[in-house]
Amino acid sequence: MFSAFLRKWRHRTDFLARETAYEARGLASLLAALAFASAGKEPILILVAAPAQARFLSRIAPRLCRASCDVRVVADLPTLDQCLSDVAGQPTRVLLAGELYARFHARLAAEVRAGTLAVA
Amino acid sequence: MKFIKRSTRQQPRLSLILLDWSVRESFHLLQYLRQQTVPRDAFEVIIIEYYDRESPALREFAGDVDTWLLLEMPRDCLYHKHLMYNAGIVLARGDILMIGDSDAMVRPSFVAAILDAFARDSKQVLHLDQFRNHRRDLYPFSYPSFDEVLGEGCVNNRGGKTAGVLDTEDPIHRRNYGACMCTGRADVIAIGGADEHIDYLGHICGPYDMTFRLVNRGYREVWHESEFTYHTWHPGQAGEDNYQGPHDGRQLSTTALEALISGRIVPLVENAAIASLRRGEAPAEDVLLARLIDPEAVRRWQAAPQRATAAETGRAPDRLIYRGHTLERRGGTWTARPVLAAPGDLYEAAELARVKAMIDAAAPLWLAPVSAAGSLFMLADRLWERMVVDRRRAARAGR
User: Do A24 and B340 touch (CB under 8 A)?
Assistant: First the structure.
């Protein structure tokens, strides 16, 4: 019984560590992309992030971005849809961590074609 | 290369391509294929073995196999499933191909469901998701009932559908792309077959490489809503201890994702036999088979060490993302371009390590501490979610 208990908790902590590492890696990629963003590019930057990443980035990203632009952070499809329609017609750049591409690719196909999607 | 059996079936509509690399302990899919509602002539079964083993588990189903080919690859050469897919594509006589698990259970309506779907729309990539049961007592496989597999121990049954099929948030990770993929043979030849790039060596690979490129070509990706496959636990599932090429942390090939992102249709490395078919050369099957295995590729695959990841070997793909830069190798030069950059912001060097050092040197001082703070935030956020939010939610639901 004790070994079953240990196995259960080992499984839980393993899962927690893996998931955290996965999201932390994506966050680091996004931060690095922001750190090297060139000034003078498109004035609006939409950051597509996982919910926990978005909670962190929404506090810090606008201050870190070297290029002075309007940074908006989104974490789900409805917000992304709203954001894209808000900025329609304006020069915009969309940035997302590579591992999130799978989740958003159907919605972002138009941005891929327009060449405004960057993947970190 | 050696044939144990060669198909004599005249005009099957569906070719089922099943793989082994001297690891399969059970081919019980073949038992379920005996119970299909369609006539047996409607489909053929092709088994591709990577090495030279005549699987004892397959012997009991030998009468159900139409084509059984041993590729006889050297034992020190890691398995490359995409080469096996291409062998199956070359040998297939059906207009529709099915690539999937040979140790899955399927219902009697399985083949009919695939044929019906393609009768309605031929320009599609059809996937069937898989119910997975993790009960250890179902191993070795002893033909449990479908209800048993869907019951206790099933990790993804949501009211008779898989959690993946119902998922709209992250379907690429939550659905099983390797369980069962079906598409037209001519269509898959038109996109150059399965990509034999070294990034797909070992466990990180799958028919989704072809799915993504077919989608880029304008085909619909369709997931069947009522027909599924069923899988029970066995040791070594999910590629434990296998060599792994570059992936996104959730076992999805970043090379395949790159194809999806860039809209690429052609494979990075095309098989010569598939290329002959694509060009419409139509040589005899033996000529095609002679072109199937590239000796130079075999040498490269032999050089990849066993039981290691691509990262551990230091071998890098031709394109990768590093600290906000896209790194690409063209000719003998590595080029790094910030993903949010104006044209002209470039680093160049002959060696990957040198380019990475240039990026590290140019990184602002705040990047490392802020990334570390971000990691801690992620951990705290997850713990908060798990220990507080989930409990509150459970308490509310119980009230």
Answer: no
CB contact under 8 A, B338 and A64: no
Q: How far apart are the C-alpha atoms of B95 and B15, rounded to whole Å?
A: 8
What architecture is the A2-119 domain classified under in CATH?
A: 3-Layer(aba) Sandwich (3.40)
- Long-range contacts of the stretch B111-117 (C-beta < 8 A, 24+): B111/B14, B111/B33, B111/B36, B111/B37, B111/B38, B111/B42, B111/B43, B112/B36, B112/B37, B112/B38, B113/B224, B113/B226, B113/B227, B114/B14, B114/B182, B114/B227, B115/B13, B115/B14, B115/B38, B115/B42, B117/B182, B117/B222, B117/B224
Instruction: Note whether A35 contacts B363, CB cutoff 8 Å.
Output: yes
> Is there a contact between B146 and B28 (Cβ–Cβ < 8 Å)?
no
Q: Is residue B80 part of a domain?
A: yes
Chain B nearest CA to A78, separation (Å): 11
> Containing domain of residue B78, as a range?
2-298
Tell me the per-residue pLDDT of B177-233, one tens digit each, with 9 for 90 and over.
999 999 999 999 999 999 999 889 999 999 999 999 998 888 999 999 999 999 999
Please state the pTM of the whole predicted model.
0.73
CB contacts < 8 A, A to B, total 139
Residue B261 scores a pLDDT above 80: no
Residue with tokens 């059906």: B94
- Burial classification of residue A77, based on how many CB atoms lie within 10 Å of its CB (0-12 exposed, 13-18 middle, 19 or more buried): middle
A29-77 tens-digit pLDDT? 888 888 887 665 567 888 888 888 889 998 888 787 766 678 889 888 7
Helix (H) or strand (E) holding B79: none
- Is B199 domain-assigned? yes
Selected residue with higher pLDDT from B237 and B50: B50
